[in-house]
Hints:
Elements: E1 3-6, E2 9-12, E3 15-17, H1 26-33, E4 40-41, E5 58-61, E6 64-67, H2 76-89, E7 94-98, H3 103-113, E8 118-122, H4 138-151, E9 155-160, H5 166-178, E10 183-186, E11 190-193, E12 196-197, E13 202-203, E14 210-214, H6 218-232, E15 238-241, H7 247-256, E16 260-263, H8 275-289, H9 295-298
Parallel strand pairs: 3-16, 4-7, 7-8, 8-9, 9-10, 10-15, 15-16
Antiparallel strand pairs: 1-2, 5-6, 6-14, 11-14, 12-13
Helix pairs in contact: 3-4, 4-5, 5-6, 7-8
The protein binds ligand RRO.
Amino acid sequence: MLKTKLGDIELDGVFTNGSGANDDSLEKLLQIAGSRAGFVTTKTSTFLPRAGNPGPRFYTLRNTTINSMGLPNPGYKKMAEIIRELKTKTKKPVFASMSGFDAHEAGEMAKALSAADVLELNLSCPNLHGKSQIIYDPEATDEVLKVVKKSTDRKIAVKVAPFLDSDAQLEFCGIAKKRGVDLIIAINTLGNAMYVDADREKIMLKPKWGGIGGEAIRMVGWGNVRRYYEYFKGSIPIVGCGGIFTGKDAFAYALAGASAFACASALYTPEGVNAFARMEKELEEELKKHNYSSLAEAVGKAKEF
Ligand code: RRO
């Protein structure tokens, strides 16, 4: 059984569900809470309920996923009710993923969602076309963080997009530091992707473009995590996300600098939440094989040439 710490949050279990993987109802969240997940993350909620995009909107191809869900969720008021109910049934920390479309919405939502232990600001949904991802807009990011920080006494995590440009990532790091972000969840899916089926001569998602997750983005995940690790030097803990299917994948994320791990694509399999127990066992074996006596000891230890 592995334990970890994210700042002063102690976790019995080092994995969580990456927001979006079957986590929009009390029933699904309870299933995650009943597994070896160390904490539970909700589907991102918005100010108003949303049906999301028309389908088909999700595919798994080998170990890669593409989605254009479009933020289907019951709205933040209902999500706050679900979280309150969930908190009566589990002792595991609950992360409320949220996405306000502007700073005012975010502030209102943050108050209600403070029923959770941590507010996870999703500044990186790739599927809201006609609206730039907040994370890619430094001024908007700064404003949202300022307002949310004022509206809650909870810890604040930011779910970040894959940065394909290191200087843009470093600019975000400066804002996160200035605004007192407590945790980084890296990375969300890689947007602007498309699945074209050559045999059918067809774009397979109804909304055409979507975000890819899973194996295809794992190296981007490692690279982004490492950059946060080097910038924050351990002062802001990192949850690694992107293509984690095995304990060995998680071990590599730890070596890059992550202290816990979020899985999304891996949960869209018949194994479901049982994947957490399997990966935990595999990760324990990796740590032992490489002579680490705890996960904390391995964090950031990837050797360099
Ligand atoms: O619901 C979605 O379309 C979605 C979200 Br909110 C997100 O953060 N990442 C993603 O790949 N899909």
